[in-house]
Specification:
With about 425 residues, this protein is of the alpha/beta class. The protein contains twelve helices and 17 strands. The protein binds 4'-deoxy-4'-aminopyridoxal-5'-phosphate. This is Diaminobutyrate--2-oxoglutarate transaminase.
């Protein structure tokens, strides 16, 4: 590990959480350079919904390279891009009756968030944005303004975008409807809140601790946005791409956001990020928001294959089935250790265990790592053990990983 300590910035995080050198990966497994096999319940923070080195995705990329397919094409029209757009339309947008235009925004999720915030402000001619407590949208100077956790902030970073954080669903417990709270703030000119261009949210907060917004809350929020002429932006970077059981996380609420940010698993493991916007919002002048790595053609090839999982309902069914296993097993673990686990929550195949005892969730993740299972933490105090296995994980591997958690907690409590 010496070269990492010598050369890589102190900002490195996962190097510390998983202090080993990984070498190969396949499906839901990773191997380190000593040949130890780990089960991956983290999936690159939701980037590997189709598993590591998914054979159909890898094969398509190999063929593309062997045939001298274009890899880097700026925003030129290419065959790889055409096939991706057509497949995205046929398999995702058309069956859901969604009319969106697609803007390729750069390689990483934050680029899509930045684009959405910029476009919303430009279209609405308003500078404020409303975001929510525990929301996570990225750490660059624009996206940082809408990320909740102040751990990521330094007052001397300088100018951040104008943004206010409002309480997410459940923030004050089940009895307070925080959409009413927001409505009151927006209606009352003594609140100090400027009418925003947009509201941005995750329908299930990933980094913020697997907080699931209720269907009613999402519908009421969409209604409030209509009432006040505010754009609704759903950040589906982490819990989109089938994670919650539907391709888009907002489908369960029957709402149609004005914009959607999509990244992580859309690229099947390759870097790809995009903004979906209602066609009338596409008010960019040609070249007004551009950049070098917007739309990598190898990523389009991978993404097109990844989208083949959406030609039928098999993956949706699999997520429902395996999601139920996760729910049952995690609830059984919580019942076994009621003094330790205060809540089990999630949807589809994204779940979290809330561990109020300070630092103990970290102990669990460490113990799991010692037992060859990779899991991560979430929540403002890292108090949630978070589960994001590949959607394609074998049932046996899923159960094996869940058994490691159970054993890790039992061993730590002995
Ligand atoms: N939005 C959400 C909901 C995310 O989970 C993340 C990444 N964890 C981002 C934005 C930022 O994406 P990226 O790290 O790819 O820039």
């Amino acid at each position: 590990m010496r070269i990492f300590e010598q050369l890589e910035s102190e900002v490195r995080g996962y190097v510390r959480s998983f202090p080993t050198i990984f070498k190969t990966a396949k499906g839901s497994f990773l191997w380190n350079e000593d040949g130890t096999k780990f089960i991956d319940f983290f999936s690159g923070a939701g980037t590997l919904n189709y598993g590591h080195n998914n054979p159909i995705i890898s094969q398509a990329m190999i063929e593309h390279l062997q045939n001298d397919g274009i890899v880097h094409g700026l925003d030129k029209a290419t065959v790889a891009k055409k096939e991706f757009l057509q497949t995205f339309y046929d398999n995702i947008l058309a069956p859901r009756n969604l009319e969106y235009k697609v803007q390729f925004t750069g390689p990483t999720g934050t680029n899509a968030v930045e684009t959405a915030l910029k476009l919303a402000r430009m279209v609405k001619r308003r500078s404020n944005i409303i975001a929510f407590t525990n929301g996570y949208h990225g750490l660059t100077l624009g996206s940082l303004a809408v990320t909740g956790n102040t751990f990521y902030r330094d007052e001397f970073y300088g100018m951040r975008l104008n943004a206010d954080h409002m309480p997410f669903d459940g923030y004050f417990g089940p009895d307070v409807n925080t959409v009413d709270y927001l409505r009151k703030f927006l209606s009352d000119n003594s609140s100090g809140i400027d009418l925003p261009a947009a509201v941005i949210l995750e329908t299930v907060q990933g980094e913020g601790g697997i907080n699931v917004a209720s269907v009613e809350w999402l519908q009421q929020l969409a209604e409030l946005c209509r009432e006040f002429d505010i754009l609704l932006i759903v950040d589906d970077i982490q819990v989109g791409n089938g994670r919650t059981g539907n391709f888009f996380s907002f489908e369960r609420a029957g709402i149609k956001p004005d914009m959607v940010t999509v990244s992580k698993s859309i690229g099947g493991g390759m870097p790809l990020a995009m903004l979906l916007m209602r066609p009338e919002l596409d008010q960019w002048k040609p070249g007004e928001h551009t950049g070098t790595f917007r739309g990598n053609n190898l990523a389009f090839v991978a993404a097109t294959q990844a989208l083949s999982y959406w030609e039928n309902d098999d993956l949706t069914e699999a997520v429902r089935y395996k999601g139920q296993i996760m729910e049952q097993e995690l609830k059984a673990i919580a019942e076994k250790y009621p003094q330790l686990i205060s809540d089990v929550r999630g949807l589809g195949m994204v779940w979290g265990l809330e561990i109020p005892r300070s630092g103990f969730a970290g102990e669990i993740a460490k113990e799991c790592f010692e037992n060859d299972l990779i899991i991560e933490l979430a929540g403002s105090e890292d108090q949630v053990v978070k589960f994001l296995p590949a959607l394609t994980i074998e049932e046996e591997t899923l159960r094996e990983g869940l058994a490691v958690i159970d054993k890790a907690i039992g061993d730590l409590l002995q």
